[in-house]
Amino acid sequence: MDNLIKALTLKENEIKSIFDDFSEISIRSAYGSGKKPEEPDVVAMMTLKSVPYIASNIKQLLISSKIGITISSIFCHQNPIVEFSVGNTAKRCELGDLLIVHVHRDKKNIFYRNALLLQVKRIADKKTFHKVTSKESIQLKLYKEWPIFHYFKIGCPDLRKSKVTRNVNLKDRHPGAQYLIFNSRPLISRYYKSYCPLTSLYSSSLMSIVPANEVLPHSSSFALSNEMFKFLCGFSGRSYMNKGGTGWSQVIRDLLRCSQSIFNRRNIGVINQPRRSFFLSEFDMSKSEEILQEEIIRRFNIAINGENMEPPNDREMSDEDPENNGGISVILINTSELE
């Protein structure tokens, strides 16, 4: 990772500016209908509209340092739901809205894997912070305490039907699972500043990534661009293992596998949803859809398994109701040290 960190640091300001543009493109695109965007609208624009921009621009910055980068993304309409106990009562909440994964391969063919799970939250007009409501407290409990949970709704039948449990270690908030905040007020400019009396900070960020807490500030101190730069360097997010491991590593592999599986079923027509709800950077988009599908599956296999294994066969679904097919939207970033 040392060579990657050095290359990123040399272009720190430019990379942060690209991610500021990424935020602006996402929000402007989500406002395209003239209505205030909901959380799924912004996630869709992040994965489908804005990813091509960062893929092409960061590539140009890193090529002189002999670092290659490719970015793939999948937008899923339904999110995975987990269930856990609070006292004697079963509670359910979304596991997250967006998963960002970074896989780096160095010259020795050693892989480094990092993940950032995000719950996207739209806050009220002109607000510079959000106080978590009682309705949102279950989601906050998950991200702050990580109780043992099982999947109530997820795209892999084997995980859902057998109620496979997951136990994430570090029973506290961590940088691998955070909130992504955006403001619902009409977009003026990312340079527009507003003052937050709660944090005594000025906000000049269109999107913020903040740790799980009862109060979620929206300020330039937590700008998405800053967090994504740290994430690419391995200073934020949380690492995961492609084989073995428990807890966090299992959860990330579950999410990648299920989103990949839903993408695969959707593109063969099992689920009647838009066929091109994905993006591949650095790939000839004139190729057939089957070849594109194979490439995105290959990249996901590298993130999950570390090798080009065949994906599990999850097509034998007896309950094809999309409500049971929760898969998380994914942005998958692959970097490598070139010869």
How would you describe what is shown here?
The protein has 339 residues and is of the alpha+beta class. The chain is built from 8 helices and 16 strands. The chain has helices at residues 2-10, 12-30, 39-62, 137-145, 157-161, 224-233, 248-267, 289-304; strands spanning 67-74, 81-86, 89-94, 98-105, 111-123, 129-131, 149-153, 165-166, 177-183, 194-196, 201-203, 207-211, 215-217, 238-239, 278-280, 329-337. The strands form 4 sheets. Strands 1, 4, 5, 9, 12, 14, 15 and 16 form an 8-stranded mixed β-sheet that branches. Strands 3-2-7-8 form a 4-stranded antiparallel β-sheet. Strands 6-13 form a two-stranded antiparallel sheet. Strand 10 (194-196) and strand 11 (201-203) form a beta hairpin. The relative contact order is 0.21.
Number of helices: 8
Strand content: 25-35%
Helix/sheet category:
alpha+beta
The 3D shape can be described as: globular
Largest sheet: 8 strands, mixed
Helical content class: 25-40%
Topology (SSEs and partners):
Layout: H1 2-10, H2 12-30, H3 39-62, E1 67-74, E2 81-86, E3 89-94, E4 98-105, E5 111-123, E6 129-131, H4 137-145, E7 149-153, H5 157-161, E8 165-166, E9 177-183, E10 194-196, E11 201-203, E12 207-211, E13 215-217, H6 224-233, E14 238-239, H7 248-267, E15 278-280, H8 289-304, E16 329-337
Parallel strand pairs: 4-16, 5-9
Antiparallel strand pairs: 1-15, 1-16, 2-3, 2-7, 4-5, 5-14, 6-13, 7-8, 9-12, 10-11
Helix pairs in contact: 2-3, 2-6, 7-8
